[in-house]
Amino acid sequence: MEAFEKLVIERDRHVGTVSIRKSADTNVLDSSLTEELSSAFLILNQDPAVRAVILTAEGDSFLAGADLKEITGLSVSQAYGFAEKAKALQDLIIHSGKPYIAVVNGHCLGSGLELILTCDFRISGPDALYGMPEINLGLIPGGGAITRLQTMVGRTHAADLIFTGKLVRPEEARFIGLIGKVSDRPLEDARFLAETLAGKSTLALAVAKQLFNRKDTEDSSLINQEMRALSMMFDYPDSMEGMGAFLEQRPPVFKARREIST
Fold first, then answer.
1. How much is the average pLDDT of 124-143?
2. How is the chain split into domains, by residue range?
């Protein structure tokens, strides 16, 4: 198997588990992790022995969004390229014939939350925290959250998450439909679910998942609009101010609105 620096891949009978290693600081979805996750998903998708996949993370953080140190200062074209790689990673989950189960402990924010929105099941530990804080950085979600959240939690809850940047605890996340279950033993519950799914017809599961994801396929042009809108914001002062303020641990000072064509 391919060697990974930021991941641990395990196979237990018909279940494949991808665990993001705990980083020295906070887990972020940077370019190197995106590439490793893409390779891991491709391996498990192509392995006929694997019938279900669990995605989780070690330690007390799942994914706290993109790496601001990496994306601050990107040009518009570079930002769009970054978003394209994130979408390609999501597509490996969406277009896989195998069910994916996300198991979340700790922070699951921004692009991390967008990633688990593409999973078929989401099981939360009691200490998880969910949100789309991009608005606080002078940005917007650019990886499908604006489109997918409206379908998943409804327009009102989606606007609350995206427009305010609020963070929600697991019980609220479950109440609005963002996650399916809160558990004191989320990984054990995910393994039980994965084994149950592994005992089903692989063809029937693959077809059912394809039909479930029809709307995601139909909404691909809307998600591309999100990607373009996000990348255009890297050409405006607010994004530089917002990301810079976060890295400098100070409140941002945003200027008057300028229009961006989507």
1. 95
2. 1-185+201-262
